[in-house]
């Protein structure tokens, strides 16, 4: 859904479906560390998801377009880049990544 979509809401929905699918895999051992990692993963992904929505709404406000290919406003591009870096665990947004992988 995420890769094939041309609309921001569909891309966001695909990312959230992926997040909800990974959460049970992280916390399946019911160990306190696994629960902590799942909580950190969920909170980080929810924050990044909110930033993706904010970026798309910001772009729609300035350009009037919800199409992914029309991301032209510099602030929207910066917020979206930060949100995707947070979702992927890229530096400097990698604070949650080692805990989830461990």
TrEMBL record:
One annotated Gene Ontology cellular component of this protein: mitochondrial inner membrane
Domain NADH:quinone oxidoreductase/Mrp antiporter transmembrane as annotated: residue spans: 5-100
Gene Ontology MF term list: NADH dehydrogenase (ubiquinone) activity
InterPro entries: Complex_I_Subunit_2 (IPR050175), ND/Mrp_TM (IPR001750)
Subcellular location, record wording: Mitochondrion inner membrane
Main location: mitochondrion
Ranges annotated as spanning the membrane: 6-26, 38-58, 78-97
Main enzyme class: translocase
GO biological process: one example: mitochondrial electron transport, NADH to ubiquinone
Highest taxon above the source species: Eukaryota
Reactions catalysed, as given in the entry: a ubiquinone + NADH + 5 H(+)(in) = a ubiquinol + NAD(+) + 4 H(+)(out)
EC number: 7.1.1.2
Topology term for the membrane: Multi-pass membrane protein
Keywords for this protein: Electron transport, Membrane, Mitochondrion, Mitochondrion inner membrane, NAD, Respiratory chain, Translocase, Transmembrane, Transmembrane helix, Transport, Ubiquinone
Recorded family membership: Belongs to the complex I subunit 2 family.
Protein known as: NADH-ubiquinone oxidoreductase chain 2
Organism: Sylvietta isabellina (Somali crombec)
């Amino acid at each position: 859904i995420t890769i094939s979509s041309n609309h921001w809401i569909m891309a966001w929905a695909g990312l959230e479906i992926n997040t909800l699918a990974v959460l049970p895999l992280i916390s399946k051992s019911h160990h306190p560390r696994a629960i902590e990692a799942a909580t950190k993963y969920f909170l980080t992904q929810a924050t990044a998801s909110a930033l993706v929505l904010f970026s798309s709404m910001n772009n729609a406000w300035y350009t009037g377009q919800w199409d992914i290919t029309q991301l032209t406003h510099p602030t929207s591009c910066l917020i979206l880049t930060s949100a995707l870096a947070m979702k992927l665990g890229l530096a400097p947004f990698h604070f949650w990544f080692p805990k989830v992988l461990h």
